[in-house]
Amino acid sequence: MIREGVQWVCTINEPNLQPLMTKLHANDPEALAAWNGGPMPVPSEQEVADLIAAHRSATEVVHSVPGVKAGWTVSIADLQFDADGESAAREWFERYEGRFLRAARGDDFVGVQNYFRTTFDRNGLVPVGPVTFERRVKPSARHYSDLVRSRLRTN
User: Fold this and answer.
1) How many helices and strands (H and E) does the chain possess?
2) Which among 34-43, 63-72, 133-142 has the top mean pLDDT?
3) How many angstroms separate the CA atoms of 52 and 66, rounded?
4) Within a 13 Å sphere around the CA of 64, how many CA atoms are in the beta-carbon half?
């Protein structure tokens, strides 16, 4: 049920992180390593297809209420790379963000949430190391406040 006066509805928050969260709840070692700074597990084609199908179904329900707009909010990283890291950055984007952003085409809006930047060099993804309290709450070389403006400017 959509409450009177609601004009914007997000169907799924951060769909591209849902496969990671599902694996975290199952204590999957790869997901636990990702939570602590390691590479994220790649969502399966089925997981992506199911999330997109759920979003489209929810969008239909939302649109059954006159005047209410629907979209979803995708977590995006500020991808930074040198000339040798561009290919790895493009692959990472496709794996974790591109499919979800393309699925938003035709939606009334797409929200973006950005918490970090991800860097690539000739060796691929540059590891960030373990997530500590300090890294979560204090700006550092990897966490900075200009993320969204930087990312939106380049896409």
Assistant:
1) 7, 4
2) 63-72
3) 23
4) 7
